[in-house]
Amino acid sequence: MEQATLLQIARLRTLAARKGKPFDVARFATDRAFAQATLNALLDSEDEELLVAGLSMLDALGMTAGLTSSEHTPPPTSAPPPPAAVAPGKYVGRLR
Question: What is the domain range of residue 17?
Answer without folding.
Answer: 3-62
